[in-house]
Amino acid sequence: MDEFTELLHIKKTRKKPKVGDIFILQPKEGLYYSGKVIKTGIESINPFLNGWNLIYISGRPATDKKEAKFDFSQGLLIPPVVTNNKGWYDGFFETIQSEEISDQEMNLSYGFWDEIKKNTKMNMVKF
């Protein structure tokens, strides 16, 4: 897998993502990945994250946007991500369909580092 640090623009929208939305992202020409919105409107002790979204990005690549499918069984490309709506507003994420969240997706165990307090342990978080 090639590394990438930027995403290409696909399609801008003002629609907010909803739980279960499947979206695509394009790191370079001819390469697509799909993601899924697991939770929206997150409540957090960190005020900067309040109202954000928990997303998963599937590790299954596709060469065509129509072939991009979210497949949780293929593993995740990167760990779960908490993000705002700018990916959709700025055109980096394009919602292509919506489906229910599976129990396996909902119950994935994950955690986030506290970057401000570098000496603290990784906290397991359930949003």
Strand content: 25-35%
Mean pLDDT across residues: 87
Biggest β-sheet description: 5 strands, antiparallel
Poorly predicted sequence stretches spanning 5 or more consecutive residues: none
Helical amount: under 10%
Note the overall shape. Answer: globular
Rounded Rg:
15 Å
Structural class: mainly beta
Strands, total number: 7
What is the CA–CA distance across the termini? Answer: 30 Å
Reading the helices and strands in chain order gives: EEEEHEHEE
Specify the number of helices: 2
Number of domains: 1
Biggest sheet: strand arrangement: 4-3-2-1-5
Question: Can you describe what's shown?
Answer:
With 127 residues, the protein is mostly beta strands. It has one domain (1-126). Helix content is 6%, strand content 27%. The chain has helices at residues 86-89, 103-106; strands at 21-28, 31-39, 53-57, 81-83, 94-98, 111-112, 123-124. The protein has a five-stranded antiparallel β-sheet with strand order 4-3-2-1-5. The protein has a two-stranded antiparallel sheet with strand order 6-7. It is globular and about 40 Å long. The mean pLDDT is 87.
Topology of this structure?
Elements: E1 21-28, E2 31-39, E3 53-57, E4 81-83, H1 86-89, E5 94-98, H2 103-106, E6 111-112, E7 123-124
Antiparallel strand pairs: 1-2, 1-5, 2-3, 3-4, 6-7
Describe what is shown at a glance.
This protein is mainly beta. The protein has one domain.
Task: List the keywords.
5-stranded antiparallel sheet, mainly beta, 127 residues, single chain
